[in-house]
Design goal:
Elements (H helix, E strand, L loop, with lengths): L5 E5 L3 H13 L3 E5 L2 H9 L6 E5 L7 H11 L4 E6 L8 H4 L8 E3 L6 H15 L1
Helix pairs in contact: 2-3
């Protein structure tokens, strides 16, 4: 990669958040994490900007879908990769309007962490076209 991409990982499970952060940093991404959608929105409102957010769908207080809709209002160019343990999850119509497709969804657990790198690069390269 020629320029370091900034990634925000939003997940309420510390083990998922931390392992993903470490792996993506090893792959030369700049990574920041948030333990909730609320704290992630505060980061965005404070002026932090990211190329892509890896977002868990099921979180307390605010779910991932509501976060992505609110985050899009703050940082319109940011892309999203969804991770969920919900086997029958489908991208909702409001998220589809943001350009998010079912191909932007990874089902947990993801044992091969390189899958995240492949999906992130695929989403970012598609948006650059």
């Amino acid at each position: 990669m020629t320029e370091e991409k900034r990634i925000l990982v939003v997940d309420d499970e510390a083990v998922v958040r931390d392992s993903l952060e470490q792996y993506l940093e090893d792959c030369d991404f700049e990574v920041q994490t948030a333990e909730s959608a609320i704290s992630a929105l505060q980061l965005l409102k404070s002026g932090a900007c990211f190329d892509i957010a890896v977002v868990d769908i099921r979180m307390p207080e605010m779910n991932g879908e509501d976060f992505m809709l609110a985050a899009h209002e703050i940082c319109g160019h940011m892309k999203f990769l969804i991770q969920t343990g919900t086997l029958d999850y489908r991208v909702s119509a409001p998220l589809q309007k943001l350009g998010i497709q079912d191909t932007n969804v990874l089902k947990k657990p993801v044992f091969e962490l390189n899958t995240y790198v492949e999906k992130i690069e695929q989403i970012l390269n598609k948006s650059a076209e």
